[in-house]
Amino acid sequence: MPRKVSFSEAQSPNHEKPIRPPSISMGFPTSAPKCPATDSRPPARYTNDYIEKPGVPRGNAAASIDRPDGDEDYAKRYGDFTPLQQHILFWDRDSDGQIYPWDTYKGFRDLGFNVLFSLLAVLIINLNFSYPTRLAHSYLPDPWFRVYVDGIHKAKHGSDSNTYDPEGRFVPQSFENMFAKYDHDGDGALSLRQLFEMMHGNRCAADPFGWGAAIFEWGTTWLLIQKDGKVWKEDVRGVFDGSLFWKIREARQSPRGWSQGLSLGGSIREAFRGFLDTYLDK
Q1: Are the CB atoms for 176 and 183 separated by under 8 Å?
Q2: Which residue has the higher pLDDT, 269 or 105?
Q3: What are phi and psi for residue 138, nearest 5 degrees?
Q4: Is residue 120 part of a domain?
Q5: Helices (H), the chain
Q6: CB-based contact 230:189 (threshold 8 Å)
């Protein structure tokens, strides 16, 4: 089960411009004239040159073209867990495979969120995801509203990026597609407007739960890791496999501190602007 990760063991977040190969001709069309969305949201055409079989889900590593094997030390340490399980191990405070509401609260506090936001996270996460993950053990609801690590794949929701597959594995092609479609300026990061554009593009019909979950997840990510008004690709990859959470806690406990993220009030204003920019344009 998980142990504390030392900030000195892991690489610091990398905000250098990542690999951005030029557009590559595939020999077949990736868009259709009668569907403008296929032209405005091109898939990543270059992944096969950097990652072996990028469409095949990785069982225990979050791979990208910048890190084809993911965070190798982290993947070795937690190689018995899928990337989706790795994503939540930070909140498994006593390594028992169960995340109690107070584990969720303590984890968010350790990441720097205030009391009110941490309580909100408990309500959203444990109330909504306890029963789906409980199904790996029983059809009866859990009276403690625990989230079960071994059943977290059952909590995968719609209207997402499909970077996690239905079993919780990591799909490099889907991860690269996010940036190929929405990183319009090619700087290896997504602005808040681009995040809202991505959420708009990923929406499935009649899926209000998935829409709300996406807004909460990406909004929380923005609050935690934005730098210079954007979320950077390597940081996002570290959120997907959970490795960044350990680094943030270690940084906050050190003299250097954690220099990314936004205050809640500032982020709400930025989010409102991003929402208006994206949805009014539509």
Answers
A1: no
A2: 105
A3: -165, 155
A4: yes
A5: 36-40, 72-77, 83-88, 101-110, 115-134, 172-182, 192-202, 208-225, 233-240, 243-252, 264-281
A6: yes
